Amino acid sequence: MKISKNSVVSFHYRLWDSSAEQAVELESSYTGDASLYLHGYGNILPALEEAMLDREVGDVFSAELTAEKAYGLRRDNWEQRVPIKHLLGNKKPKMGQVVHINTDQGQKQATVIKVGLKNVDVDANHPLAGKSIQFDIEILSVREATASEIDHGHAHGPGGHQH
Ligand code: ZN
Fold this sequence. Notes:
The protein has 163 residues and is mostly beta strands. Helices cover 8% and strands 39% of the residues. A hairpin with a 6-residue loop joins strand 1 and strand 2. It is globular. The structure holds zinc ion.
């Protein structure tokens, strides 16, 4: 079965920062659960979703994404002051730490550049902004989505939404 709209796909990945002279591994799913997503609903990066189309179980491939197609270009002087209580985890962060912030548009990652008493100043660029990245993908399973998955717009099960 080939991946198309309304496929639920389970896959393992390694994510590399390919903008460095020697690629640096950033993340790997092989240390835990495989990832699970519903194809065609923007649940993963659009360029990665495009690279997944028509693949099938057992396929192993790499998708190289330019910064524009990954997490966007880096904006200069994009600083924001954030109340510490708006940080996920709600603990006092350290300089240089990547924090998760609750915003109107959902969760966002940013890097702490100054720590105050009640606020932190963050560089609001995604930590991977301005970097080209590469995914090494292994497709583990492909199945039809259930009606409730299509209704919710996401996959259900380990590695996906569990509710
Ligand atoms: Zn759901």
